[in-house]
Specification:
Strand order of the largest sheet: 1-3-4-6-5
GO molecular function, one term: single-stranded DNA binding
Helix content: under 10%
InterPro entries: NA-bd_OB-fold (IPR012340), Primosome_PriB/ssb (IPR000424)
Keywords: DNA-binding
Number of helices: 2
Order of helices and strands: EEEEHEEH
Largest sheet: 5 strands, mixed, barrel
Distance between the termini: 92 Å
Structural class: mainly beta
Pfam family, one: SSB
Radius of gyration: 27 Å
Protein name: Single-stranded DNA-binding protein
CATH superfamily of the domain at 7-110: Nucleic acid-binding proteins
Shape: globular
CATH topology of the domain at 7-110: OB fold (Dihydrolipoamide Acetyltransferase, E2P)
Length: about 160
């Protein structure tokens, strides 16, 4: 079976996220920034100005995102780009928005602690179950040796006092 893939983006939340409801359906909206870089000689990169875009998410995922995402958070989102027509002061123009199916904090740029709801119920069959743990080999770690003693100070020259 082929690996299922989707478009994804990474960036930062540039505005205060908003949650609205239309016909009882939640809609998460945030203005996002995407950083861009220019490769330089020697494997270095130069920061370019970020670009700014609209990100939306719908349903229960939108309600969860409004609880967890704040302005300035670095994120990774999976979904698709949607092009639509909007009215800008009486002039119709085409615009794009990223429609996120999934979104979360960028692990490369965010430190946090995971608090699992019900770890036992979320385990994949045959993986970290009590039966699998009982059958797995136990690793015995050797106690760490104490650090080596610091080197002796260099000998001091003899001094003569009169």
């Amino acid at each position: 079976m082929a690996i299922k893939t989707m478009q994804s983006i990474n960036g930062f939340i540039a505005s205060d996220p908003q949650l609205t409801f239309t016909n009882g359906k939640a809609r998460f909206y945030a203005r996002i920034g995407i950083r861009h870089y220019e490769p330089l000689e020697g494997g270095r990169f130069r920061d370019l100005e970020p670009t700014f875009h609209d990100l939306v998410q719908f349903g229960k995922s939108a309600e969860r995102s409004i609880e967890l995402l704040r302005r300035g958070d670095n994120f990774i989102a999976q979904g698709s780009v949607r092009t639509y027509t909007r009215d800008n002061d009486g002039v119709e123009e085409e615009a794009e928005q990223f429609v996120a199916k999934r979104i979360g904090h960028d692990l490369n740029l965010t430190n946090y602690t995971v608090q699992r709801k019900n770890a036992a119920a979320q385990q994949a069959p045959g993986h970290d179950t009590p039966a699998a743990r009982a059958a797995a080999p136990t690793i015995q770690r050797q106690p760490q040796l104490p650090p080596p003693a610091p080197p002796a100070p260099p000998p001091q020259p003899d001094t003569i006092t009169r």
